[in-house]
Amino acid sequence: MRTGKLRYVLDSFALLAYLGGEPGQEQVKEILAGAERGEAEVYLCLVNLGEVIYITERKLGLAEAQRALAAIEQLPIQVIEANRELTLGAAHIKASHPLSFSDALAMALGLDKGAVLVTGDPEFRAVEGLVAIEWIAEVS
Predict the structure, then answer these.
(1) Is 138's pLDDT higher than 90?
(2) Is pTM beyond 0.90 here?
(3) First-to-final CA distance of the chain
(4) Residue 77: pLDDT above 60?
(5) pLDDT at 137
(6) Which residues contact 2 (CB under 8 A, 6 or more apart)?
(7) Domains of the chain with bracketed CATH
(8) Which of 2, 22, 39, 85 is the most buried (most CB within 10 A)?
(9) CA dist., res. 38 & res. 49, Å (int)
């Protein structure tokens, strides 16, 4: 059942911008504030969560990755597992578009939820007409 709420999917770019205080952080904060007020639903694919955590650990170490995970778990984000339907949808997207598989999963989740994909990743320029995108930060 669809609600009248705004729906968003965060990709790893958007979540990393939020966590790292990078350009785009304010837009993500606004989206999360809307979810806190019950005006929006925010989704994140579990694989994209894993991507955020491994990038954080690689750059800042295990302790910081654990802090990031704890912070994410407090946010009004629904983490969605990559089930068979979502995975095969992402495979179909990846077969004909130059996206990483994790980006294809975020896109497939956006399509499945009828949601706006929130990103600043220029890789998504290739699919701009296929999924609604809210661009954060400067995209080259």
Answers:
(1) no
(2) yes
(3) 37
(4) yes
(5) 80
(6) 114
(7) 6-135 (3.40.50.1010)
(8) 22
(9) 22
Token pair listed for 90: 């992402």
Distance CA 107, CA 116 (A): 9
Contact between residue 109 and residue 115 where contact means Cβ atoms under 8 Å apart: yes
In this structure, which amino acid lies at residue 9? V
DSSP state of 118: E
Reduce the DSSP state of residue 16 to 3 states and report it. Answer: helix
Q: Which of 128, 117, 123 is nearest to 139 (CA)?
A: 123
Task: Tell me 133's DSSP state.
Answer: E
Cα Rg of the chain (Å, integer): 14
41 touches 75 (CB < 8 A): no
Q: Which of 115, 78, 116, 129 is nearest to 2 (CA)?
A: 115
pLDDT-wise least confident of 53-57, 65-69, 125-129 = 125-129
